[in-house]
Design a protein that fits this description.
The complex is a heterotetramer, with 2 copies of chain A and 2 copies of chain B.
Chain A: E1 3-7, H1 10-15, E2 19-22, E3 26-27, H2 28-34, H3 37-44, E4 49-52, E5 55-56, E6 64-65, E7 70-74
Parallel strand pairs in A: 1-7
Antiparallel strand pairs in A: 1-2, 3-6, 4-5, 4-7
Helix pairs in contact in A: 2-3
Chain B: E1 2-7, H1 13-23, E2 29-36, E3 45-50, H2 52-69, E4 72-80, E5 82-84, E6 89-97, H3 100-116, E7 120-126, E8 129-132, H4 137-144
Helix pairs in contact in B: 2-3, 3-4
The chains are: A alpha+beta, B alpha+beta.
Chain lengths: 80, 147, 147, 80
């Protein structure tokens, strides 16, 4: 097993798909490195949040995901 | 009574509202907001995506916040996901209360939070293709009304 | 679209709300308040009297004020008169608008004015007979929110 | 014909009926005189308004009703 990455909203377009798998263990630096170009820039933006197994992290830099974890990258919600 | 639903297909609001009213006989007031895909603005379809582990739990937490903040007999929050066409309901909030102010304010509160603080991502299909909808500054202002 | 009605018999709100929604396809939002005779508080019946030359014209003027103040596609105001029993609808206000804030505020505005500034006199029948309902201080406060 | 007086709300209870006829012409003093006891006191209260043929008067003392006019006595409305 690995870490499952879920891209929400327009991040899925930039990633070319809604999901990817990356090798565990995975920290924030490794995740940004695995996301090249525009996608890496986008997920690094202040307004993109991250959740691990359904819990949103206060600080993306604290990401620490292991085997079987699901990491979701959450761009700003759309509003009214 | 709390009824929170995330639906992936078209729904008829009236039976859901009527069921809330039936369940809350002591409520003299029932306030409702129904949001639909607008017609006649060049939008051919709307697609709402969500994230299962966050979206419904977030709606449920919002319902609890409204029930805690206002004196309600019951609250219904329904939100669509998936592909929708002009005229179709997207969101329904209905609050039953003894007094009208609580019912109306609870609906206003829930709508402001659903719009700007819930885990939905929206795309519109126009004649030139699909476009992601960005957050609006107005939404951030709306939610500050309640802090 | 403006639909203002004074009804002397029981009515079903849903067809009236649905007709408003059908008439306002450009409205993305529909806000509604339904007020009913409360159940389970010892009220056996409610009687509403009105004065024909003032009551309906007053409701119509109120509808125009709401349409002038908020950006609405349509507004429905329905009020009962006569004898009502617990659970029966008394008042229905529904506003269709492009934006939700206009719809919700129009309903809030119309309800505050219907409750404290419209020509209705209300009696409740309790186990010890009929009692006239006096104005409440809260109603006067409510209406000042809009001045 | 005369002036038709309509009593609304609890004024109808005090008047013992919803309507009366009084001779024309009718001014405010004559109306109060024709309404004896509690009813006279009640209609004199600040919060009771008066309408002539469906138009509410700013000042009750300006009442001046003729043959066929309808005068309505309007106590405070009931509220929420």
């Amino acid at each position: 097993m690995a870490v499952r990455i879920v891209f929400l909203g327009k991040l899925a377009d930039l990633a070319g798909g809604a999901e990817r798998e990356l090798p565990a263990p995975l920290d924030w630096m490794a995740l940004v490195e695995a996301c090249d170009g525009d996608l890496g820039d986008a997920i690094s933006g202040d307004k993109v949040r991250i959740a691990v197994n359904g819990a949103v992290l206060a600080d993306k830099a604290t990401l620490s995901a292991g085997e079987g974890d699901e990491v979701a990258l959450l761009p700003p919600v759309s509003g009214g | 009574m709390k009824d929170v639903r995330l639906l992936d297909r078209a729904f008829d609001p009236n039976p859901l509202i009527d069921a809330l009213a039936m369940a809350c006989p002591a409520a003299g007031g029932l306030a409702t907001f129904l949001g639909k895909v607008r017609m006649g603005e060049g939008v051919e379809a709307l697609a709402l995506s969500h994230y299962e582990p966050l979206t419904l739990p977030g709606m449920d937490t919002l319902a609890d916040a409204a029930l805690g903040r206002f004196d309600l007999e019951g609250l219904l929050i329904v939100h669509r996901t998936g592909l929708m066409h002009p005229g179709e309901p997207i969101v329904l909030v209905s609050a039953a209360a003894r007094h009208r102010r609580d019912a109306i304010q609870a609906v206003d509160f829930a709508m402001d939070h659903l719009k700007s603080d819930s885990w939905f991502w929206k795309r519109e299909k126009r004649v030139d293709g699909w476009h992601w909808i960005e957050p609006r500054a107005q939404d951030a202002d709306d939610i500050l009304r309640w802090s």
